[in-house]
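Give me structure tokens for this 387-residue protein.
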Amino acid sequence: MNPHTLDRPLRLLRICLHLLLGGLLVLAVARAYVDGRPHALEVLAGALVMGGVYTAGPLLPRVGRSPAATAVWLAVLGAAWLVLLLRTPDGVWLAFPLFFLQMHLLPTHWGLPVVAVTTVVAIAGFTRHVGGLGYGVTIGPMLGAAVAVATVLGYQALYRESEQRQRLIEELHETRNDLAAVERSAGVLAERERLAREIHDTLAQGLSSIHLLLRAAERALPDRPEAAVPHVTQARQAAQDNLTEARRLVYALAPVELEGASLPAALERLCATTQQRSGLTVHFHLSGEPFEVPTAYEVALLRIAQSALANTVRHAEASRAELTLSYMDTSVTLDAVDDGIGFDPQNAGFGLSAMRARARSLGGSWTVESSPGHGTALAVSFPWSVR
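Here you go.
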């Protein structure tokens, strides 16, 4: 509950309190004149004074805001009530609205003692008029004080609870906004990482191939231009493929190699293209009966194969490499093996880290086995089953 929703009931209570005090003042004056009491004029004067002091309270800007000004106003109002109580026994009923004012405007540790004193004064004043102390004389003001105390304390407790709940709601909104900001930031970072892997596995590898092909053509020129032509042709084709891949990457579409072709066909074509451009002997093997797997798995397997062969061409100094795609009952697995110089997996570069991150981001497993002088074996597997 918003604490502001309690403002309307509070305004209604204030109006009722105004009406109650005004009605009790009119009642005290009317009974004094109807009963023909000797102090009727003094009762009227006391009622007017008390009513004037009470009316001045809401008009004074410091009352209710300054503790000192509030205490002074309540003291003057209490003195006016005491004068009225000394002139008429009906003044005892005016203690009831005073209880509410004292509990509402004073701190609780001051309000309770003041209410207690007001109760004692009310009982004493009424006893002076009736000439004796009875149960009704005692219980009436005490019940009034108890009701006022319980009502004000209950309202204050409800208000505090509403404020606390409102603070919790605001904190929840702030936490939710912070969480949304963190999630957006994490999404941006994940997308950046994904794009970095895509660029490394496609454009960077393609540009590296173009660089190698152009270097080969450069060595053949100008003495053997006929030997440079195939290298330039392959470089031009690689540039075209990379341009197409860049456009696909911008529009976040599937790799061009998979468009209109199955994953085994795309991997077989990758092996043939790599062998043609690099001179490395590359063989592709298919194990098991192919079945449909999520596109995300196919993209990941193709990108990892591209990156693995690119690393072999650039760093392994290998003479032979093999790709094996295996369709099993509960998984689809890609193995990449070469007979190169190997390396220390503990000192893996960005390419291997990107492959591992790509596999694990889709719930797959990724392992690499290598050591200096003993080649490299890489395996990535995604859990799946024929449905």
